[in-house]
Amino acid sequence: MLLIQQATLKDLSTLLYLAQETFREKWTPIDGKELVEGYIQQNMQISHFQNSLQNPDISFWIAFWQDKPCGYLKIVRNAIPNNYTHLGKSFLQIEKLYLFAFAQRLKIGSELMKIALQVAQNENFDVIWLGVWSKNEQAIRFYEKFGFQKISNWIFVMGDKICEDEWMMAKVLPN
Q1: If you write DSSP's letter for every residue of the chain in order, what string do you get?
Q2: What percentage of the chain has pLDDT greater than the value 90?
């Protein structure tokens, strides 16, 4: 049974757990423990999530499968990527959409994506966008299924590693 709820400060420990553990699960086999742990220390501590949960431009949703937290969504309002104002005036970023591997075939990612798209529509955003690793073919197919298209290359920094093999994908929303 799937339950998705918007996160509040009372969900801080669950959100921290999901962020750190889903990131470890995904990236440690690719980038190694040292680099991943360094990124987590720099970017995924309790203070980061406290500040984000108190920011009205940032929202999180937590997915539970059979009462166990299994994934989360983070959206950031008014996150305008450089040089893309020709696509629209208001931008919503999907900054994180992470699931544990066991949850990836349960359509939970689709439900989280539907929430992001609903927020974008309800709040009249022109564009919804995200960054994705260019070699993550499963994620790219997933985003394309929802109408996202590659609009450029993108850079993601993890510690001292500059990842230049990232894509920016976007979907222009109907008015």
Answers
A1: -EEEEE--GGGHHHHHHHHHHHHHHHHHHHH-HHHHHHHHHHH-SHHHHHHHHT-TTEEEEEEEETTEEEEEEEEEET---TT-GGG-S-EEEEEEEEE-GGGTTTTHHHHHHHHHHHHHHHTT-SEEEEEEETT-HHHHHHHHHTT-EEEEEEEEEETTEEEEEEEEEEEEPP-
A2: 81
